[in-house]
């Protein structure tokens, strides 16, 4: 599929410098791009490739300096990185929109309600009373349990399992291998040392514009809902326990884990491999550094913490500086001890 520089500029709201009829059919990094490919330049580290790239069309920042005439058509935008991301998103939408219909073999329960322009891939299982909204794509080898609701324009990638009664909103993307609605980790200790399973009768609620990476697990609530609010982005290999709430536009990096009933506010950033205990609150705008262990609530908005147990980021940096100075401090203390010992010896004599 070919697109002209003029068409691309129209899609991303850019201004063209050069030949608007230049066409491209694929994307490439600016240092590797060849004729017929589109590239972008957002990072100053790659400015040198602007003059050597073979790309036919390049998206650049509106204030980017160009030292010599280029063969490529340039599209100037306020933010080249965001514009390129928007273009890729539109391209992906066009590709997925071509998918429609129901592949066989697949199972769709008679009571399921399937919207228009829906794609259901081979070996998918669609349970009783399932509702799938318009333009949603359910890829092969997925399991959609009874009474699940999928909104419009949602993409469920291969191998996803969504257990019964869960609700997924509009414009959601769930990547391969993720499990939504498995039982929360609830067991009551008994006097004989065994554990009795606590039935998990709630569900998972995923609001609009959420993206969940591959092989993540979001447990169903004991009662009520485990909730992922609008616009949240979850990376691969994340564990969200029962009755957790993840706030709007919160981002969580890979291998992080959130224990049961913890409430995470809006616009929170959680680094990779961070661990958060249960039944606490994380204030809006908080930043949790990678590999941090959060053992108590973060009560003040826009706080930054690091370490295990996690504490205030600025204090942690000061502690690191003090730690690096310990050898010198030890040396000075020993010198003082020797000086004091010498003074004491003079006083005695």
Walk me through what this model shows.
By secondary structure, the protein is of the alpha/beta class. It has 4 helices and 40 strands. It folds into 3 domains: 3-97, MurE/MurF, N-terminal domain (Udp-n-acetylmuramoylalanyl-d-glutamate--2,6- Diaminopimelate Ligase, Chain: A, domain 1); 160-309, Hexapeptide repeat proteins (UDP N-Acetylglucosamine Acyltransferase, domain 1, 3 Solenoid); 318-348. β22 (187-189) and β23 (195-197) form a beta hairpin. It starts with a strand and ends with a helix.
Oligomer: single chain
CATH superfamily of the largest domain: Hexapeptide repeat proteins
Strand order across the largest sheet: 8-11-14-17-20-25-28-31-34-37-39-40
Strand residues, percent: 25-35%
CATH domain class name of the largest domain: Mainly Beta
User: What would you report as the Rg, rounded to the nearest angstrom?
Assistant: 28 Å
Give me the secondary-structure category. Answer: alpha/beta
**N- to C-terminal distance:** 97 Å
Q: How many independent structural domains? A: 3
Count every beta strand, where a strand is a DSSP E run of 2 or more residues.
Answer: 40
Number of helices: 4
The proportion of residues forming helix, as a percent range, comes to 10-25%
Named at the architecture level, the CATH assignment of the largest domain is: 3 Solenoid
Low-confidence stretches: none
How would you characterize the largest beta sheet? 12 strands, mixed
CATH fold topology of the largest domain = UDP N-Acetylglucosamine Acyltransferase, domain 1
User: Mean pLDDT, as a whole number?
Assistant: 93
- Overall 3D geometry? flat
